[in-house]
User: Fold this.
Amino acid sequence: MRALVTGATGFIGRKLVAGLANPVVLSRSPDAARRTLGNVDAFAWDAEAGPPPAEAFDGVDAVFHLAGEPVAAGRWTRQRKARILDSRVRGTRHLVQAMEALAHRPSVLVSASAVGYYGNRGDEALDEAASPGQGFLADVCGAWEAEAGRARALGIRVVPIRIGIVLGEDGGALGRLLPLFKAGLGGTLGPGSQWMPWVHADDVVGLMRHVATTQADGPVNAVAPGIVTNREFTKALAAALGRPAFLPVPSFALRLALGEFGESLVHSQRVTPAAALASGYDFVYGTVDAALSAALAGGSVRYG
Assistant:
């Protein structure tokens, strides 16, 4: 399978590219992408400026679209919210426009999305058939998936991957939490009772490759089956590190420090991986204890 990847130098992108044979990468800086990723075919693309070059798609069977402005980089100002939305909507639109102009199109578009699609839903069980939620992230994910869905009219199978909170040995949510927990300053966020749909980075990559090579069609939740509450996750991480975790961060403090983004950190989303399991995907890390143990040990599964 020859695959094209956008967002290839990000946390998930790097892991995905490492397991692909002869991948193609779209990047604002192809030289920098080659330095980061090694031996890849890299083409220049400004996602918001227009479609990528047609020659980047030569021989490509699958497209993995991960590019977008980081969501968790700080307070959501009006300008940052516009960047988060525009980078995803315009970038995806331009990618689909490029595929529309091709004589020989890829067979599948695996496009990143997020569990933010569901909004704040309390204890409601959420599989892929659940309705979209409300709020900024839900609106962004809905618009993002709608743009990717335009590729279906071109005869391309489209699989939006609704990614949960990603755990891994060298980045993701765990990379932000470890310094605090190692210093004994970790604790629950807000009430702690909110559901926290996590997934190990290796399972995000494994699931993306799985849906690209099977007949999966439509949204797929990239979350582990062993969902936990924030309080349970906090306890598991503290135990894995042998550190106390007794400094909870109240919801109002998150709002004061981070505004609307802080509010999103205490949203409850009881998301289940129904489509992934139905498609035959076997999660490498089904429990949070196993995922944390592997991540803290620096373990990683490679998909050849």
Notes: The chain has one domain: 3-297. Residues 3-297 form a domain with the Rossmann fold fold (CATH 3.40.50.720). The CA atoms of residues 276 and 282 lie 8 Å apart. The chain has eleven helices and 13 strands.
